[in-house]
Design goal:
The complex is a heterotrimer. Chain A is mainly beta. Chain A is about 10% helix and about 40% strand. In chain A, the strands form 2 sheets. Chain A has a 5-stranded antiparallel sheet. Chain A has a 3-stranded antiparallel sheet with strand order 2-1-3. Chain A starts with a helix and ends in an 8-residue tail after the last strand. The model of chain A has no long low-confidence stretch (mean pLDDT about 90). Chain B is an alpha/beta fold. Chain B is globular. By secondary structure, chain C is α/β, with parallel strands linked by helices. Helices cover about 30% and strands about 25% of the residues of chain C. The longest helix of chain C has 20 residues. Chain C is globular and about 55 Å long. The model of chain C has no long low-confidence stretch (mean pLDDT about 95). The chains are: A mainly beta, B alpha/beta, C alpha/beta. Chains A and B meet through strand 4, strand 5, strand 6 and strand 8 of A and helix 5, helix 6 and strand 5 of B.
Chain lengths: ~140, ~375, ~350
Amino acid sequence: MEIPRHWRLKKQRYGLVGEVCPHCNHKIFPPRDVCPNCGDEAKEQFAFSGKGEVYSYTTVYEAPAGFDANAPYTVAIVKLEEGPMLTAQLTDMGEQPIQIGMSVEMVTRKMRNDGDERGVIVYGYKFRPVAQNAIAG
Amino acid sequence: MTDVIIAGIGQTPVGEHWELGIRNLATAAIRDALQNSGGLKPQALFVGNMLAPNLSNQAHLGALIAEYTGLTGIEAITLEAAGASGGAALRQGYLAVSSGMVDVALVVGVEKFTDKIGADVEEATATENDSDFESIHGMTIGAQAALLMKRYMHENNVPENGFAGFALNAHANSVANPNAAFRKAIKAEMYAKSEMVSDPLKIFDMAPHLDGAAALVLTRRELIPSDWQGQPVKIAGSAASTDTLALHDRKDMLRFDTAQISASKAMKQAGIELNQINFFEYHDIFNIYAALQLEAVGFAPRGQGWKLAEDGSIGLKGRIPCATLGGMKARGFAGGAAGVYQAVEAVTQLRGQAGANQIAGAQFGLIQSLGGAASTAVSHILQKLG
Amino acid sequence: MTLPQTSPTLLKPVKPVGIVGYGAYVPRYRIAAKEIARVWTGKTSGLPIKEKAVPGLDEDVITMSIEAARNAMLRAQIDPAEIRAVWVGSESHPYAVKPTSTIVAEAIGAVPSTQGADLEFACKAGTEAMVAAMGIVGSGMGRYALAIGMDTAQGKPGDALEYTAAAGGGAYILGAADESLAVINSAYSYVTDTPDFWRREYQKYPEHGMRFTGEPAYFKHITEAATHLMQASGTTAKDYKWAIFHQPNVKFPQKVASQLGFSTEQIAPGLLVNTIGNTYAGAAVIGLTATLDIAQPGDRILCVSFGSGAGSDAFDILVTDKITARQSLATKTQEYIARRTEIDYATYARYRGKITMK
């Protein structure tokens, strides 16, 4: 079990909390306290909107231990509208075929059990297609 | 700078060695290499290993392998840089010998994948990715390669079976390699019909994860006994580079910067140009990596690396022969041993001992060992002397 | 049982309280009642509903509560740090011990100066949370309080409950009446010890008293709560534009509405059970979100929950002119219902963990 680790990352997992560089305004996710753009210190928190688009995607059939109960599942690289990219699962795809460039939005979902079903449930970000009937904002 | 020579090579066949543990594999390769060196006495052992703590519940391989090889007492440590562990161990051996601090160094790469199965292996290999921000999302190394491949195909209009040439070349070249796991040529239809692992990545787009060990004996040229009979092969260039661990943190993930940086540094040290390289042992654990390495090193422009496989340029008689004894795809991917197998095979070529697969007149070989999706790259230029 | 001789006063906060923001959530998977019947009985008629909502493999009451709470936040447009209570009512909390509420509070930024607790009162745990939230705000102890009713209800395979036990619910941010899109004039709760439905500890599926769940339980408690609320408020059914009654199936809410003098039209917007199933602790509250989605300023709404065991919470709600601008700030209930992927019984069995893996 890795309780402290999952606990430590909850702001990123639940709220996509990263950083904004006070020197060059570069948006940073995951946070690292050093701006990858200008190299200066960047510790100011910044919560990302959770809106983005699919940069690439694939399906995992042979899942690692701890993820096998949910296989097959789709993993994507998502480009957030503020700039950074991240890795996340896509969920609730419905009948909509996934395409590079499709708009997606962040949701919070179960990611895995920490260990087995006796461990804590790890929650975090996944992305789903922005629904046709959803309201912008 | 004094010349560092690869004086001995050794290897086990790559495969499912149910009857052999990690120590047995390493010992077999080391004894093979020491014998091949003509009986040089190593003072230090550098072990390249990727996942023994996860797959074999065994860390501290340096002392263990030294003991089981009958070398207890010598300096011994493990180098880990994911799939580049073997290349990293070779570079540390090279640095130790070239510095003059060590006269004879032993480099061994070893991996024992088959003590665990299925989901446990996927879990272990996924530790080479960013655990907090990639692996927690169920990302596997295959999925990561598939994400790269999908984007690459999207940007470069690669047709569905555009990567087949890499697999066909590797399997054709492994037939003559007695240490290869798969010694059978495949046809394009087999590739096309092969199982989808992670769309668009097919089973023939990735190398099988198998057990194996390979070893090298390094020394300085002047220390070679006068009665030594072998063909000396020199480490003419050695360089390593790192990039972001997570693929999503790259500024441009379709460019393997570490492959470019380490290769050009190694070539600069060797004092050679790209067109002097006679063959290239790339890190074809995934075909997409091979394509991106061909581009990074400069053999193909951006987005065109896959075409070198399609048009036969990477064949034994092509412009830049690659995976000349089967590569990881057909010889098999043995984790931390992979980079050392590359060196063993390159030395085999440069000694002129590659049999049916011999690259005529080979003088310079480039070997490149990758950790993850080129988060680490270690490049070496090996040169046939005299 | 009749109303007490001396009528107790209504639950009316010292400071007027209302709904500042609300949000719904319905997962996208649906299984048709006839698909369940195909597996167990072969019947094609007499089914209690058309289809029910099923949570995905990666969903539970926590993830669903977070989404509903985020929708409520989008409509409320408030600083989450000012939320002083996060209460989640459900009979499907993912943990036996460890609060749903702290995870939801953390996800919306309502930590650390907040109350947090999980409530359980069968299907009325959500409205119980709302009454508690009225207390926090109405007493002046906190500016805002978040109350959620959400469930991923369990039904034993083949049991009558399996046709309806569904997933969904709603979230409400309560605050001062003058900031509200709907004012809660008052509430009234009617509770007795009536064992019509229960689930013992460590049991996976609930038990129920068959027809005993009807007259002495559902109808008795809803009728008493609604009647008392209206009598004490000086209202009749005609004073309400809309009404919501707990909806375990289509028939019960229709019948109790009729008995209380409400028309089919009055309960139409909130009657969702035919297309999403019985969402248990979410059932009355999501009926209310759907009604608020289409309500106009000045509309008066009666909302009555029912929870087995047993009790009813009744609310007298008056919609304000602030509703118009906020309805479209988040996904509406009917928009969630329209997002649907139909699944067969085998997929449903997998999603709901009904296939024994060890």
